Amino acid sequence: MGSWLVERRLSKVGFRLKTLRSELAVVDEQLLYLGEDADDQAIRAMVAETASSSFEARSAQGNLANMTKHRAKVVEEIAELEERQDQLLDQLID
User: How many C-beta atoms lie closer than 10 Å to residue 3's C-beta?
Assistant: First the structure.
């Protein structure tokens, strides 16, 4: 494979990695907020013992779970791209 093609692919992978790392930083910040919110809602639900407070607590916990899943997917994609980047670098050297 031509080195220009490998370099082009490396560039695309590098750009995507940069984008995903930025997204991961945002997701981590959101997880902190969502975790605190889920804890607060759970406490309110225990104290209030109303249907609406229980619903809000479940909703907050669901939001936290969804963001945790999203974070795992982002981390997985970063790992895959780093592996791809290593492969491309190996091709460039050979």
Answer: 10
